[in-house]
C-alpha cells in the first residue's frame, strides 16, 4: 500500500518524538494535511501507560525499529474514541470505542489513523501473559469487542488507574496482573489447540465484521457458516456476556455513527443506514436513538 507523505512540520516531529520516548521506536507518515496528535505519558511504578491522540497518520514498526526497542512487553490498546486500524502478521483489528487489542512489541506492526482517534496504550510485560512455558502465545491484532465482560472490566481497571496516580508499587503490579488475567483467556492461542468454544467465537466475530454490511447477516446465517447450531451460537456469545443479535446491531450502529461523523452532510440518512445493513429507515432511526440518545440527524448536527 502506497502512503502519501506530506511535509512533516515541527508539531509532527514533536509528536513522534513523544511516541518514541513513551512506547519505543516507531516510524510515522502523515496521511493528509490535517494531522493532529498528542501524547500524555503516565507512569505509576509498574504501570506504564500513554494516552495517545492522533489524526491522519500511519504509525508502524519494521524489523529495524523492533531491534532498537525493548521487546519484553505487549502493547495493550484500549480504544477510547474514534477509529483505528491495527495490523500485525495476518491479523487486522478495526477498532471502535471501547474495543481492546494486543500488539507484540517484538514483531513488526502497522497502525492507520485516518480520522481522529484516542487510545490508551498499556505496556504489559510478557511474564504477565506468558506465565507457563508451553501454554501458547497470544493472538495479536485481534479485536476484542467493547461489549465483552472481560473487556469492560479491564477498561475500568485502567481508566481508574489513570485517575489514581498515587497507587503503590504492589497496587500497580496487582493492576497489571488483573488486566492480564482478564484478557488471557481471550487472546491465548494454545499450542495443543485453542478451546473449541473460544475458537468458534473468534470465527463468529470475524465473520460478522467481514459481512457487517450484508442485509442477509443474521444469527442463523452466522451459525450455519461456522458449523454450530443456533442455540450453540447463543450460548457461545452468552459466555462472553453478549447477545448475538444485539452485538450485530450495535456493531452496525457504531459504524453508522462513524459514517455520520465523517461523511458529507448531503448524504441521506437512509443511505447511511442501508450501507451498514439497515433496510428499513424507521427501524434504523429507532435503534440509533436507543443506542446514542439522539436521532441520526441530530447526531450528525452535533459533529457537523
TrEMBL record:
<dbReference type="InterPro" id="IPR050204">
    <property type="entry name" value="AraC_XylS_family_regulators"/>
</dbReference>
<dbReference type="GO" id="GO:0043565">
    <property type="term" value="F:sequence-specific DNA binding"/>
</dbReference>
<dbReference type="Pfam" id="PF14525">
    <property type="entry name" value="AraC_binding_2"/>
</dbReference>
<dbReference type="InterPro" id="IPR035418">
    <property type="entry name" value="AraC-bd_2"/>
</dbReference>
<dbReference type="InterPro" id="IPR020449">
    <property type="entry name" value="Tscrpt_reg_AraC-type_HTH"/>
</dbReference>
<keyword id="KW-0805">Transcription regulation</keyword>
<protein>
    <submittedName>
        <fullName>AraC family transcriptional regulator</fullName>
    </submittedName>
</protein>
<dbReference type="Pfam" id="PF12833">
    <property type="entry name" value="HTH_18"/>
</dbReference>
<dbReference type="GO" id="GO:0003700">
    <property type="term" value="F:DNA-binding transcription factor activity"/>
</dbReference>
<feature type="domain" description="HTH araC/xylS-type">
    <location>
        <begin position="202"/>
        <end position="302"/>
    </location>
</feature>
<keyword id="KW-0238">DNA-binding</keyword>
<dbReference type="InterPro" id="IPR009057">
    <property type="entry name" value="Homeodomain-like_sf"/>
</dbReference>
<dbReference type="InterPro" id="IPR018060">
    <property type="entry name" value="HTH_AraC"/>
</dbReference>
<keyword id="KW-0804">Transcription</keyword>
Amino acid at each position: 500500500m502506497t502512503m502519501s507523505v506530506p511535509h512533516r512540520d515541527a508539531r509532527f516531529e514533536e509528536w513522534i518524538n513523544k511516541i518514541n520516548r513513551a512506547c519505543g521506536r516507531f516510524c510515522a507518515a502523515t496521511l493528509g494535511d490535517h494531522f493532529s496528535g498528542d501524547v500524555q505519558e503516565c507512569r505509576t511504578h509498574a504501570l506504564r501507560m500513554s494516552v495517545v491522540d492522533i489524526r491522519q497518520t500511519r504509525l508502524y514498526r519494521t524489523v529495524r525499529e523492533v531491534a532498537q526497542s525493548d521487546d519484553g512487553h505487549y502493547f495493550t490498546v484500549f480504544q477510547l474514541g474514534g477509529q483505528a486500524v491495527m495490523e500485525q502478521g495476518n491479523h487486522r483489528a478495526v477498532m471502535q470505542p471501547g474495543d481492546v487489542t494486543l500488539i507484540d512489541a517484538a514483531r513488526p506492526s502497522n497502525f492507520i489513523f485516518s480520522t481522529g482517534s484516542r487510545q490508551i496504550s498499556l505496556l504489559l510485560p510478557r511474564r504477565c501473559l506468558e506465565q507457563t512455558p508451553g501454554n501458547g502465545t497470544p493472538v495479536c491484532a485481534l479485536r476484542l469487542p467493547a461489549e465483552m465482560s472481560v473487556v469492560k472490566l479491564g477498561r475500568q481497571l485502567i481508566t481508574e488507574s489513570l485517575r489514581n496516580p498515587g497507587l503503590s508499587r504492589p497496587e500497580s503490579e496487582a493492576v497489571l496482573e488483573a488486566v492480564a488475567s482478564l484478557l488471557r483467556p481471550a487472546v491465548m492461542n494454545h499450542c495443543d489447540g485453542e478451546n473449541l468454544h473460544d475458537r468458534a467465537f473468534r470465527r463468529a466475530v470475524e465473520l460478522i465484521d467481514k459481512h457487517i454490511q450484508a442485509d442477509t447477516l443474521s444469527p442463523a446465517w452466522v451459525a450455519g457458516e461456522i458449523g454450530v447450531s443456533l442455540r450453540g451460537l447463543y450460548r457461545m456469545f452468552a459466555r462472553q456476556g453478549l447477545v448475538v443479535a444485539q452485538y450485530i446491531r450495535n456493531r452496525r450502529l457504531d459504524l453508522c455513527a462513524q459514517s455520520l461523523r465523517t461523511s458529507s452532510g448531503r448524504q441521506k440518512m437512509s443511505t447511511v443506514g442501508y450501507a451498514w445493513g439497515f433496510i428499513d429507515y424507521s427501524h434504523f432511526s429507532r435503534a440509533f436513538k436507543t443506542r446514542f440518545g439522539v436521532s441520526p440527524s441530530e447526531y450528525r448536527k452535533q459533529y457537523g
